[in-house]
Design brief:
The protein has 270 residues and is mostly helical. The chain has two domains: 3-184, no CATH class; 205-270, no CATH class. The chain is built from nine helices and no strands. It has helices at 3-17, 20-30, 42-53, 61-76, 102-116, 151-162, 168-203, 208-221, 225-242. α3 (42-53) crosses α6 (151-162), α3 (42-53) packs across α7 (168-203) and α8 (208-221) packs antiparallel against α9 (225-242). The structure holds a DNA duplex (20 and 20 nucleotides).
Length: 270
DNA sequence: TGCGCACAAAGGCTAGAGAC
DNA sequence: GTCTCTAGCCTTTGTGCGCA
């Protein structure tokens, strides 16, 4: 990292630490009707919308988080190239002279804020822990990693921002608004499902076989069946805990980790 | 159908920079 | 000279998915 990159990094970090992203989030949450996105083209709105809607339990989160970080960086310091994501001071490690450590910015400012407002469920250490985002190549159309999710949309946004075709702060606000909409829709859906389930339980006598068939049908008809099975198993264990079947044991919350993890000490997601 | 890559989380490790 | 911090690199695992 050269001296000018250091100065730019300091400016970005100072602005983020003073709550830049939080202010944008609150603006979207509290004054959404006053936001004017007429300066954003339909094409760019579509790219940002697709990026948000591409998020599933498996893919897409890291790309949304990264786009938010890149838009913040560009809004605060337009001179900073948002393709160069590494900026080590050490000659031992790979980095670009004009690069900045996006991993550090993410871990300190972006991920904690997105988690705080429940806009994106991310690993506490940040989305930059995703290995494919850490390849030693600039983020461009020929970026090496063949990421799943809305890869082409993300790269088009990066391209448009670097080519000055998008006003970064406006794009950031639009992206955050889309995330708020997505989160609201999800909460609404959850309430609807809970209501439906309660009315179903009021009118139907459920036995073991019916419950088992509902769970099985749900898994068979859904994408990511393995995850649904884990959730079903954890739900059954919650019921067992409620009835004190194993009074000396404590059921841990369902974790985000998908597999047995020696370091974390869990088994599967449980 | 099998293979290999990508994704996800949660850090540990380590060399070099910077502070004292 | 020593200590602390920084930031890139590395590890682990099962599932999903594309391709041969």
């Amino acid at each position: 990292m050269n001296q000018t990159a250091k100065i730019r990094y300091k400016k970005i970090a100072t602005e983020l630490s003073s709550g830049y992203l939080e202010r944008q989030i609150l603006l979207c949450r509290n004054s959404s009707s006053n936001l004017d996105f007429s300066q954003l083209s339909q094409e760019h709105k579509l790219l940002l919308g697709t990026l948000v809607s591409s998020v599933t339990s498996e893919v897409g989160r890291a790309l949304v988080g990264l786009t938010i970080l890149q838009l913040c960086v560009k809004s605060i310091e337009p001179e900073q190239n948002i393709r160069l994501h590494k900026g080590s001071a050490s000659s031992r490690d790979f980095s670009w002279h004009d690069g900045i450590s996006m991993r550090s910015l993410d871990k300190q400012y972006i991920t904690p804020t997105l988690r705080k407002y429940e806009l994106l469920r991310l690993n506490a250490d940040g989305f930059m822990m995703t290995r494919s985002l850490a390849e030693n190549y600039p983020y461009s159309s020929v970026y090496k990693a063949n990421m799943r999710g809305a890869r082409s949309e993300w790269l088009n946004i990066v391209e448009a921002v670097e080519e000055d075709q998008i006003v970064p702060e406006l794009a950031l606000l639009y992206l955050l608004s889309q995330l708020f909409n997505q989160a609201d829709n999800f909460r609404e859906l959850a309430v609807q499902i809970t209501d439906k389930l309660l009315s179903y339980l009021e009118t139907t006598i459920i036995n073991k076989e019916i419950a088992f068939n509902i769970i099985l049908q749900h898994m068979n008809n859904s994408a990511y069946a393995a995850r649904l099975m884990e959730i079903a198993m954890h739900s059954l264990m919650q019921a067992m805990q409620e009835f004190q079947i194993f009074p000396n044991y404590l059921l841990k919350p369902l974790s985000q980790m998908r597999s047995a993890n020696k370091k974390h000490g869990n088994i599967g997601d449980i």
